[in-house]
Every structure is written in C-alpha cells, then in structure tokens.
Amino acid sequence: MIKIERRNETSNLIYFLTPVLAIFLTLVTGAIIFYLLGFKPLEALKFFFVTPISDLYGLSELLVKATPLCLIAIGLSFCFKSNNWNIGAEGQLTFGGIVGGGVALLFYNHEGVYVLPLIILAGAFGGMVFAMIPAILKIYFNTNEILVSLMLVYVSKLLLDYLVVGPWSNPEGFNFPETRQFSDSARLPILFEGLRIHAGIFIALVSVFLAWVVLFKTYLGFQIKVSGLSLKTAKYAGFKGRKMILLVFMVSGACAGLAGVGEITGPIGQLHRMISPEYGFTAIIVAFLGRLNPIGIVFASLIVALTYLGAETAQIFLQVPKYTGQVFQGMILFFLLASDFLLFFRIKLSGFKKYEY
Amino acid sequence: MNTKLKVSKVSKIYPGCIANDNVSLDFESGKIYALLGENGAGKSTLVKILSGVINPDEGQIFLNDKLLKLASPKDAKNNNIGMVFQHFNLFETLSVFENLSIDSEKNNDQLRILVNNILKKYNFKIDLDVPILNLSAGQKQKVEIVRCLIRNPKVLIMDEPTSVLTEQETEDLFLSLKKFSKEGILIIYITHKLKEVLSLCDEVAVMRKGKVVSISRTVDEELSSLANKMIGESLNKIKKMTSNNLSGEQILRVSRLNFNSEDPYEVNLVDINFTLNKGECLGIAGISGNGQNELFQILSGETLSNSGSIKFRSKEIGKLNPKERREYLMAFSPEDRISQAAVPSLKIYENVALNNFKTSNFFEKGLFNERKIKDHSKKILSNFSVNTDNVNLRSQFLSGGNLQKLILGRELITSPELLICFNPTWGLDVGAINYIHQTLLKINEQGKSIILISTDNDELLQLSDRISVINKGKLSKIMSAKEVNPEKLGLLMGGGLVD
C-alpha cells in the first residue's frame, strides 16, 4: 500500500531552495539526454548554458529575452497567488501588441516624444482589456478561467495573423505578412550601441518593485494572499471577491500587454506573425520557478531566458533542434512540481515493512 | 436463513473523547433496528466500525456466532454487510450502470440481468443508462441500495438516509426497507428523527455520549419518552441564572428571512423570524445539518439576503458583507475555526489583520502597518489568555483551545454590540470550554448580545436566556430557557411539535 500524507511543517529556506534543486536535476537529466544522443554531456551543457552568455552580446540577448518573461510572470503572480488561473498571457501579450502596434502604425510618419508613451499605454490597455474577458465571464457566469483564457490565445493570434496579412500589411512590403516598420519615435531606445538590449528592461524592473510593494506591503496584497490560501476565510473576512478577480486579471493582462508592446517597439520594430516565441506560456514556468515572489521571478526569468539562448547555440553547434530549449523548460517545471510534492507531502509505503521518506 | 449480528463490548477512544464506551448490542434478522442519538452520541463511530472504516480499540463483532475481522470496508462487503451512507459515493458523470459495475466482479451481461431483476422485484424505476447527475436524491439513494443488494447482503446499514429525501421518497424508502426486512435482511437504521423510529423500526437502541443508554421495543415507546432518553435528564441542573440587566432594548430583528440554495446538500431556510435584545443570549439548538450553517452565513453576511430581512439597530444590513457588518459592531465566530476563521499557515498577527476596521488603522495610506497590528495582536494574546506571546507564530501551531481564544479575542477586542458564534467549543478540552463559556457570560453581563448556534445542549442551557430549535431550516417558537426541558428540546430537534 502506498499512502500519501501531508507534512506538518516545511521550512522557508527549503521552500526557496527547491527551485535550485529542480534546476540541478534538470541539468543532470539534460546531461543524460545529451549522452544518449551521443554528445559529451559536459561539453553539450557548456554549449547550452555557458557559451551563450560568454560575451557582451550574449548577455544583452539574455536580458532581451528575460525582460518580457519577467514582466509577464510578475503579472501572473497576482493571478496565481489569489487562485485565479490565467493561462492566456500569450493572448494578452498578442492583443497588447496588436493595440500598441495599431497606435504605432497610426503614427508611422509622426515624430515626437509623446508617441512612444502613447503606444506603451495602448499596449498595456489592450492586454488589460483582453484579460478582463475571462475575468468577467468567471465572475458572472462561473466559467472556468483556465479554458477561456487559453482559448482566447488563439483568438488573438488569428486576429494578428489576419491583420498583418490583410488590412495592416505593409503597402510596400511585397505581400510579406508584416506591417510597416515603426517610426523611430515609436521605438524603445537602445541602451548600448550595437547591442539589442533596450529600455524595456526598466519597465520590467519598475514593475518588479511595484509588485513587491503591493504584494507584501499593502492591504490589497494581503487580500490576494489570504484569498489564495483560503477562499472560505476571504469570504468570512468580507473581502470583495469579484472585484479582486477582475483586478488581478487586469494587472496580469496589463503586464502581458506591456511585454508585447515592449517586443514590437523594442527588438522587432513592426508587427508580424511571430512577435513572441510563446513568452506568455513560458512565463508560467518562470512565475512558479520564482515562487510567485517578485525577486524570485527576476532570477527565474534569467534562468529560463538562458534556455532560449542555449537552444539556439545548441542548434548551431550540436545540430540539435531548437525545441531542446522547450524540453529543458518542461523539465524545470516537472522537477519543480515533483520536488514541491515531496516538500509538502510524504509517501508512506506500508506492507510488511514501513519506510518513511 | 436467520442472521444474527452481535456487537460485544466495543470501545473506541479518541484523544479527549470516548466515542464508543463498552457498547454491546444484539441484532437479529426479521426486524428493523433503530440506533438513535444526538450528534456526537457515537452512532457514526459504531457504524464505521461495523463497516470496517475504523477499527475498534476493544471488543468484537460476531456474525452468526463467527468472529468478524473488519479491517477495511472490503472485509465488510465480503461478509455481506452493506452500507448506505448519508452522502452518496457515486460518480456524477458516469451512468447508473457504470457506477454499479465499478466494484462488481461480474461481467456486464450477468450484472445487467441481475440489476434488472432487482429493479423489477422492488419496483425501482431507474434508467440504467442515464448519468447519475440527472437523478433525484431519492433515485441516487436507490442506486446505492441496489449496489448493496447486488452482493446479497445479510445486514444493511442505513446512515441518516432521509436527510436528503422528500416526504414521498421517504415513504418509498420505508416500504422498501420493510420489504427487505421481510426477506430476512437485517436492517440497522441510524437516525435522530424520533418519528421515523416509531413508524419504521421494531426495536430502538438509544446512545448518549458513547454509551448505549436504553434498548427497548418501539411499541413500548412514544415520542416524549424517546426524546427524554436521547437528550438525558441531567440538563435541568445547569441552566443559566438569567441576567437581570435585560433592558428590553431591541438590537437585532430578523423578519421573513428565506434562503433557497442551489446546492442540494444545503438546507433551505424558511420564514425565519426573531428578535434579540441588548444583553441577551439567544440559543439556537438543533441536530447539525438542519440549516445552522446557512443561518450563520446569512447572519454574518457571507451569504447576502434581502436588505429588509435583517435589521441591526435601525440599519437594514441584509445586503452588507461581513466586513461592512463588522463596522457596525457585529462580530462572528464560525464553526470551522481551523480553515475559515483563520488561515493555518499565516502568522498570528496576519490572522488578526483579517478583521481590518476603518478605525483600527492597520493599513496606513494603503500600506501594512506591521507594528500596529503586532501591538494589537499582543493585546489580544494577553487579554484572552492565549498561551503564547509570539505574534509571529503560525496559527497552525496553536492548540484548538488557544486558536479559539485568539479568534474570539480578535472578534471581541473591539467591543462589538453583537457576537454571533457557531459551535464555539466544538472539539475543545474542558479547560478551554470553561474559559470560553465564562467569556461569553461576561460579555452578556456587559450588556452585549449573543446569538449562540450550537449542537451542544448543555452549552445552550448554560448560556442562553431564550432558546429556539432549528429543524429542516425552520425555527421553532422561541422559549424562555426556564421553560425548556429535555423532552421539549428532544421533540423539537427530532421534528416534532410542542404546543
């Protein structure tokens, strides 16, 4: 007989160390996989995790990828902490990109300092509105937000597809599925000449700080925490449950929208089909790896961003598909959930002998 | 064949409570036996022992003089003991037949023939291929019964089977049970409803505080004698000295309050009317699951009602949520202290911050004022004798009694005009119970009012000035605690009427 029991106490230190353990296990498993594929495991891991960030350009790329991941995960942490399962950040990112991109196209021949802030606000607003759909449906019709938010991802992606192929496609673009290039005033400034790292990183850092203040220092954060731990208690305390659902989705959507608009006004500079390599989904892993804690999320976003870069390097040097990156992301989440399970529960085997783990 | 079931000197002891104390009972087929008792009398424990869910500390069970080893529910099944629980164990989205076939070793064709025969024999009208969720409660129960009948039971145990049934379904059930009994199945019927005992059963064993206090034939009993046995005679001695400072000033008025739930396991409240005066304690008695939960939630504001139905002082508060009601100086102590009144993984001071009043200034300009909350928490810990002064302790490490003191302290430290509490001493040790009773008496003396919803009759009689009984979502006439006697209480709790 196998019995699963809840553990009485889990220490805070271990709680924040298990993500590290999960990463370690991922590396070990990764090494085994590379070995089975016929590579030297250590060398392959080096190509994957060290080579990409061994020069300035690589470091800048790491931050370019970590920026949207961090922003989205910060937003998601508001949802996840309060037991609202927003799985559709990718859709909110896309919709934010569409709205922000629309404004950028509107101003494609304008110059002025007002253009960029307008685009950014529009992007945040777009993501926010798009995230309100699953929230409102949940509040008034008791729909499942996981399904609704996930399905809306495909709605926004198809909308983007339609726009870049049809009405918004570049009139001088030889029918390529992309819009015009945005004007220079519609672009986030580059921080260092020759590198792609852009001012979006400041938006991410500010949001980390704000999230930390809100989650740990305010009544709203307290309400979010209590609702996540026990909805029954939240109800008994008289917290306004519906308002909170709407609010956390709005925050989450706005962050995803910001990430989307940061991509198109940052490294991309126009709208096309592939404005995000699934940042919205990967950010779910980042949020959990960072323990839904803003500071943790900063580190987690750097680590997960590295898997994106590593996959590219590995594709070049080892000729393995770039989807290896997703394998690593999947393994991190798997090991994190598995070690969490063992952290909160113990497995008891009883038969002729009793073992305790 | 004749079936004899013998329970011999069975005891089960939990920390702080003897659930079954040397229980011996004899059952014989051809009769329907009632097992009668209040909440916590030990009925469920005995039933769980008979069905192999828990193991007794002492004692044996014999079936036809053979010693039974009931280590698991499977053993009970293999010994032809069938059990229908109060809450159904069915997969809602699977069909009736799929549910029946899950734990059957027979192949599907054989099983279908068998089930059809059973349905025909007892005139059960159930479509085998519809999902369970389309069935009424009565039909679901029939599916559970059929599941037992497939295994040719010698003993059939029914645990509070009518609590979810309509009158008509109850009558149907009784007819079926009588039929089973004639066919030689031994039936043990667990209930707290006195009328059912008299109309259905042949013999009745009454349990109180873990002991069997009486075994008799139902023809020798009547409602009042059963009520007396169920509640016990000792209660008269411990009544409250009714406070003499009742001012007669009305503080709460509930009028024409109705609640219809969409959840079949919740109880609808029907036309609740009562008033409460300043400095008074109104006790609401009843067997659990008769609407106490729903009533508490409506009074606390977790469930909203018509704005006119609840009036606190001169304000209509039906539409206000708990936080808003607290601002008007109401306080609430729910039954579930562990996961509702507090969050176990939060620290003491965080649990204290759950009650955030406008005047308490826990959050200055929206920011958490940790020092203020901690000072406030320390005050609660010392004023209400919680045996720690560490406000950073997670509340999961507090004992039940200390947790309840913390919760009551949190609710009372702001001097509310009205405290509504639900089973405040449930599961606590004597010392803690005593402390909490003293606290409640004290706030009454200070002119504050209390509504005490409780399933503990001793407690109600000790603390209440007036008492009403809730049964199937209806409140009985409100009686002065002086005129309440065990007989009246038992009758009202069992669904009877008192003139």
Polypeptide structure, described:
The complex is a heterodimer of chains A (357) and B (499). The longest helix of chain A has 28 residues, at 241-268. Chain A has 13 helices and 3 strands; from the N terminus they run βαααααααααααααββ. In chain A, helix 1 (12-36) crosses helix 2 (41-49), helix 3 crosses helix 11 (279-289) and helix 4 crosses helix 11. Chain A has helices spanning 12-36, 41-49, 56-81, 89-106, 115-141, 145-165, 200-217, 219-229, 231-237, 241-268, 279-289, 294-317, 324-344; strands at residues 2-6, 345-349, 355-356. In chain A, strand 2 and strand 3 (355-356) form a beta hairpin. Chain A is mostly helical and 357 residues long. The two termini of chain A are 15 Å apart. The model of chain A is unreliable at 352-357 (pLDDT under 50). Chain A has one domain (2-356): ABC transporter involved in vitamin B12 uptake, BtuC. Chain A is 69% helix and 3% strand. Chain B has 499 residues and is of the alpha/beta class. Chain B has 2 domains: 4-232, Rossmann fold (3-Layer(aba) Sandwich); 236-493, P-loop containing nucleotide triphosphate hydrolases (Rossmann fold, 3-Layer(aba) Sandwich), CATH 3.40.50.300. Chain B contains 16 helices and 23 strands. In chain B, strands 13, 16, 19, 20, 21, 22 and 23 form a 7-stranded mixed sheet that branches. Chain B has a 6-stranded mixed sheet with strand order 6-7-8-3-9-10, with helices on both faces. A 4-stranded antiparallel sheet of chain B has the order 2-1-4-5, covered by helices on one side. Chain B is elongated, with a radius of gyration of 25 Å. The two termini of chain B are 47 Å apart. Chain A binds chain B through residues 216-222, 225-226, 229-230, 232-233, 235-240, and chain B through 300-302, 321-326, 332, 334, 336, 339-343, 345-346, 350, 353-356, 362-363, 366-368.
